[in-house]
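Researcher: Please predict.
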Amino acid sequence: MRSPAVARLSLAYLFAATLLIGLPAALAPQTFYDDFPFVAHWVDLLPPYNEHLVTDVGGLYLGFAVLFGWAAWSLERTLVRAVCTAWLLTAGLHLIFHAGHLDSFGTADAIAEIASLALLLVPPPLALWAAAPVARRESATRA
């Protein structure tokens, strides 16, 4: 299980997730606010709408998408470690905020939201663990 393929798959999952969140937030902020995650409506349960904030969050997620894509492509150790660590901080704080603001959510939506946010914390440690042998082999070949 510890292989470049597992590391790339973990990073590719995060690339796709951040892209799918970042694009609508950056390009259609009102739609993102009103309808995200598009099978439910969670963002509008935490008013008020702020176009600037939603667009900035979209840009943040798109920036992470670039970094996750780059890391998946290169598996460069420093990049993988940096983007995974930064994401764990960002996604962890995001989860903590939402866990404390579930008053307007129904039970099923609250569980689904917290589970989906928690799921985004799984790939970074997996990518770090799976990419470690690749980084060691690259270091050995440079020496």
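Model: DSSP finds six helices and no strands in the chain.
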